[in-house]
Amino acid sequence: MIRVVLPPHLRALAGVGREIQVSVDGTVTQRSVVDAIEAAHPMLRGTIRDHQTKARRPMVRFFVSEQDLSHEPLDAALPDEVARGREPFWILGAIAGGRR
User: Which residues of the chain have a pLDDT value below 70?
Assistant: First the structure.
């Protein structure tokens, strides 16, 4: 099982706790993990990635072991620690801001 940590707004929308678990057949990639999340929690479709293009939403980031994987290829294999359930796949809402 793949462990996934969700940000508070997605937890509230899905009605789940801080961490969920999803099953992925085959290679564990960003795409396969998000596919599994959307299959298990249909109310999250379109919140992590665009409905049609399947591209990651600009204000969402993916992390593993404190490393930002947001701009890595969607079909690249995730680290073995994630595939074995030792480390979670983090989905975080990015914070934007600036000076006025």
Answer: 96-100
